[in-house]
């Protein structure tokens, strides 16, 4: 849904200096054995935010992204590392059960529509080993600010106020263009949120429906984390967490016994 935005130079450069988030650190520490010396696929690697630690831990790191500009940025930053221009919906370049650990960080799965999201999950299940781990984050529909609209910010500094006004006008134009493309149903929503001045449409889902969606696609949810790194269960209050991290594995019938 947002391919053009992720190929803009301003967005690519904004991702370069981003660091690991709290839940990512906790997951990488807790599940280090699932990564160390293993074959890792980093989907939506962007400008390489997660590359440094994953390539050093693993034995056979591959990073892919739908944005060619993001991939070129990675190739410039990390020499002798495998980066591929790819699409989560069709990863036929990879064999069945090729990876021990698949990560789709920073809500990358939320940039495609519902039908394509399911295709992506099917592909991830195909390339993940039976005992492997799938880690990803997704925007939280329960977040108190999930639904918003542009608001003017005020400053006593004239130059700053001009910047605020310009940003507000840009955001309003984007919002007016995108708001009619929003989707609301019981299972998920596609919202025009605050990201990049309301220039994007983003998939939102709550914990209950995400766990059910994973189950329908053949995954079992092991753990969930909020943005502070707190472990959640299905009844946890998550209104202050803009997105949620999920740790999942391929469903095994033994899990029901």
Question: Please, could you describe this protein's structure?
Answer:
The chain is of the alpha/beta class. It has one domain: Rossmann fold (3-Layer(aba) Sandwich), CATH 3.40.50.150. Helix content is about 35%, strand content about 25%. The protein has nine helices and eleven strands. Strands 1, 2, 3, 4, 5, 6, 7, 8, 9, 10 and 11 form an eleven-stranded mixed beta sheet that branches. Strand 2, helix 5 and strand 3 form a beta-alpha-beta unit. It is globular.
Considering the chains and any ligands shown, give keywords for the structure:
single chain, Rossmann fold, 257 residues, eleven-stranded mixed sheet, alpha/beta, globular, 9 helices
Topology (elements, then pairings):
Layout: H1 3-6, H2 9-16, H3 22-30, E1 40-43, H4 51-57, E2 61-65, H5 68-77, E3 82-85, E4 99-104, H6 114-127, E5 128-140, H7 158-178, E6 183-184, E7 189-191, H8 195-198, E8 202-205, H9 207-216, E9 219-225, E10 231-232, E11 243-250
Parallel strand pairs: 1-2, 1-4, 2-3, 4-5, 5-8
Antiparallel strand pairs: 5-11, 6-7, 7-8, 9-10, 9-11
Q: For the terminal residues, how far apart are their CA atoms?
A: 40 Å
Give the overall shape.
globular
CATH topology: Rossmann fold
CATH homologous superfamily label:
Vaccinia Virus protein VP39
The percent range for helix content is: 25-40%
| Total tally of structural domains | 1
Q: Tell me the β content.
A: 15-25%
For the record, the CATH class is Alpha Beta
Q: Spans of 5+ residues with little confidence (pLDDT < 50)?
A: 5-17
Query: What's the helix count?
Result: 9
Order of helices and strands: HHHEHEHEEHEHEEHEHEEE
Note the main sheet.
11 strands, mixed
Q: What is the typical, i.e. mean, pLDDT?
A: 92
Q: Which structural class best describes the helix and strand composition?
A: alpha/beta
The radius of gyration over CA amounts to 19 Å
How many extended strands? 11
From the coordinates shown, what is the CATH architecture?
3-Layer(aba) Sandwich
């Amino acid at each position: 849904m947002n391919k053009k935005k992720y190929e803009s130079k301003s967005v690519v450069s904004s991702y370069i200096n981003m660091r690991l988030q709290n839940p990512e650190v906790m997951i990488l520490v807790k599940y280090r054995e699932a990564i160390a010396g293993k074959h890792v696929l980093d989907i939506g690697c962007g400008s390489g935010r997660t590359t440094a630690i994953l390539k050093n831990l693993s034995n056979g790191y591959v990073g892919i992204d739908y944005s060619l500009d993001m991939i070129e940025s990675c190739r410039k930053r990390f020499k002798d590392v495998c980066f591929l221009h790819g699409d989560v919906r069709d990863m036929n370049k990879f064999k069945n059960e090729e990876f021990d650990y698949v990560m789709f960080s920073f809500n990358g799965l939320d940039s495609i529509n519902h039908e394509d999201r399911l295709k992506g999950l099917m592909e991830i299940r195909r390339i993940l080993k039976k005992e492997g781990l799938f880690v990803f984050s997704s925007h939280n529909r329960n977040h108190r600010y999930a639904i918003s609209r542009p608001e003017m910010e005020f400053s006593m500094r004239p130059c700053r106020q001009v910047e605020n006004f310009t940003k507000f006008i840009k955001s309003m134009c984007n919002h007016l263009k995108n708001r009619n493309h929003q989707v609301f149903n019981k299972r998920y929503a596609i919202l025009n949120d605050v990201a990049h001045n309301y220039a994007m449409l983003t998939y939102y889902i709550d914990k209950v429906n995400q766990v059910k969606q994973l189950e329908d696609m053949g995954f079992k949810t092991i753990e969930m984390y909020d943005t502070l790194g707190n472990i959640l269960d299905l009844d946890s209050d998550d209104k202050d967490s803009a997105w949620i991290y999920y740790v999942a594995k391929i469903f095994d019938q033994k899990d029901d016994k």
